């Protein structure tokens, strides 16, 4: 091992304990009422962690500046949450880096913009992404500044391909967003720039799949955006969104694809040879599939029919390992020396002995981790955890297990999702004795919470709690340690509230359902028979956040974290 990777031994804590790291997705802490699905659901396992050991349960900040977002008005999300959990430090995240690059004008001077600019004189600039002010994947104000900047720098023809949100923002806000965008585009037209929205669709049905769960989602987007083909044709995007929202059960997340056509019925914005394309989402997970389709010569995930020769740039580079895409407007946070990479580089003997052929030969290089979730969250505990890197650091020491998610449904239909399977896989991994760390993500609170279906979310929360119980029982059997936490809030509050905390009533007389994440803190609990006596949470880290978890987990493996990591949450009395 290179000496730079060597972690110091913890002065008091032993090595060799199996540590289960459990991340409940979308599981925050707030006051109990009927819109708090975690409170309403039966969750005995999580309740017992809170009640039984007050010095081993606490809250952590999971939003805003604590996870590298521009302000404390920004809710947390899985990318920034898992980045912080895995990296142990707070990095300025995509949202903030793009803000800075736009404010300084640097974005317009760097390589990525200069590359796409070559298409401005004779061809079209296409901007594809999520039309939202949620700040999770993209932001409308950033798109507006990008449009303005491109217009000022010679873009003559601009086409925007919008994906409606309703997941990180209230359902129905797509209409106002499209109106805002249309106003900007008409100002550009006033300056002689041919600027229009060219296509659209709901993010979950068109384009923004992740982790290769369902390539048909990306194909629907490709057909509308690149080929100019969609089942619905309109003259104007605001009209399109309003009309498509009238269908029974329609919502922003799942609007069908549409294209804008001219008076002759011809699509106004297919992508053609010589054009420039920018995907303006800064967040990676739901853009990498489209990025592959736009960038890769060889591609077999669906029939692209026509692959235009384009200049393509991402808002950010989405995958640092695959260098995807190769051109980008803003450099992503350089997240390096993550806890996963350190641990892989620091051997743990005890369990590794089981791999040795001669009995009790010391094998000092094997650190096995097993990371598992189902498809829709799989990359969270791998890709995000490892600083937006796909693949393992060392395939001999890491095993990534993925349980296929149900696809083609919204998760309120099957709110238990694969929690049982995730729990059982984790249990089996723990009991196998092959792994020093077993890391899992349990998605229900988040994925069902995003549907806005309160009854289903309650069922999902119970299923998540059942999975926690399965894992804790296995930890108990092997004498291990557990760390149970969450990446951000969601299921604990399902309604939009006024400043006093009262539910807001919408125009239709019903409470306004909140599908998005929240600003609430998340719990973290430690315990298990392997936890050394006297270990408890320190009282002097009152502002602790997700980034403090990595040093804590390193301690529980018997190591001291590197100096520049956020401090550990625990002390040994
Ligand atoms: O991509 C999504 O599903 C939401 O926009 C954010 O949810 P996540 O951050 O929990 O993935
Ligand atoms: Mn999440
Ligand atoms: Mn979410």
TrEMBL record:
UniProt-listed Pfam families: iPGM_N, Metalloenzyme
Active site annotated at which positions? 78 (phosphoserine intermediate)
Transmembrane domains' residue ranges: none
* Domain of life of the native organism: Eukaryota
Q: Give the metabolic or biological pathway.
A: Carbohydrate degradation; glycolysis; pyruvate from D-glyceraldehyde 3-phosphate: step 3/5
User: What region holds the BPG-independent PGAM N-terminal domain?
Assistant: 98-319
Please provide, alphabetically and separated by semicolons, the GO molecular function terms listed in this UniProt record. manganese ion binding; phosphoglycerate mutase activity
Biological processes annotated in GO: glucose catabolic process; glycolytic process; response to blue light; response to carbon dioxide; stomatal movement
InterPro entries reported in the protein's UniProt record: Alkaline_phosphatase_core_sf, BPG-indep_PGM_N, Metalloenzyme, PGAM_B_sf, Pgm_bpd_ind
Q: Does the keyword 4Fe-4S apply?
A: no
Spell out the Gene3D superfamilies in the cross-references. Alkaline Phosphatase, subunit A, BPG-independent phosphoglycerate mutase, domain B
Which residues does the record give as Mn(2+) 2 binding sites?
A: 25, 78, 487-488
Q: Where does Mn(2+) 1 bind?
A: 446, 450, 517
Name the catalysed reactions: (2R)-2-phosphoglycerate = (2R)-3-phosphoglycerate
Please provide the record's keywords in A-Z order.
Answer: Glycolysis, Isomerase, Manganese, Metal-binding
Q: How does it assemble?
A: Monomer.
- Specify the protein name: phosphoglycerate mutase (2,3-diphosphoglycerate-independent)
Its lineage reads: Eukaryota, Viridiplantae, Streptophyta, Embryophyta, Tracheophyta
